[in-house]
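Dock zinc ion; give full complex structure.
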Amino acid sequence: MQAMVCERPQQGLVAARLPQPQPGPGEVLIRVHACGVCRTDLHLIDGELPEPKSPVIPGHEIVGTVVAHGAGVSAPALGARVGVPWLGHTCGHCEYCTSGRENLCAEARFTGYQRDGGYADYVVADARYVFALPDRYDDLHAAPLLCAGMVGYRAYRMAGDAPIIGIYGFGAAAHLVAQVAIAQRRVVFAFTRPGDYRAQDFARQIGASWAGGSDEVPPVSMDAALIFAPVGALVPAALAVTKPGGTVVCGGIHMSDIPSFPYSLLWQERVLRSVANLTRRDGEEFMALAGSIPLDVHVEPFPLGEANAALARLRHGELSGAAVLTTGL
Ligand SMILES: [Zn+2]
Ligand SMILES: [Zn+2]
């Protein structure tokens, strides 16, 4: 099969012909149709994530068809269209797994990081961690739901019932979360890199009530902020425009250092927290929402072999929405 492989950090991806993988007990073999490109893939390729499988095939927003079962598997059925997300495996018995927080399991294994992912014609996945996909989205448009959508949704859920939500970094996750928030009658403010008027126009087109640079002050203070950009300086910036009692949620897996800031920014019961990974419950809830709310998923398709070009466009903030690799199978 064709695959794009991360052989060593900071060297980009290398095109390779590899043997088709075989599903082990409890696993399914999936023929990949589309795989989204996530910022986490950049962190992996840049060597910013500890102890990756090496070499590793990135990609954790996978849409494909089940073509073989490993021993003991009966579902999902052969021929079923499924999605494979970031969360690839958990232990099932630790204090986190048994309390609805499998996203924090110390033995969790993640797709396209510690297990081979979807930048390939085929992928093997644990059958218990794949999702059915809403019919209203074709393969290309379903792919970003699997991380941008699901992990974005977990960040959004941590904002509680906040009526006014600011979103920092208006990329793939933000454009999906903003649509869910607006459908649920919240007001969304979008913060982009200063001077990125194209991203600000995109945010307004999605339905943001206000869009501006991250150095700008929004028209009113916010009840919550979601930070999807990997920039630590946004934390004090967001706290400064969040109301007393409001929550600032950091949604990325990696962020530059957070500069020191005066306690007054946190004082008055503001909450600062991160969100890590996702649980299967997050995924199921988000897929149910995506099935009922017609999300306008913005994608930019690339052939699998042009993964490095897609990653470069993401790195330089040149995408509106999500890059998705297609295998042509
Ligand atoms: Zn566990
Ligand atoms: Zn991701």
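Observed: The helical segments are 39-45, 139-142, 148-157, 172-183, 197-206, 234-240, 280-292, 307-315.
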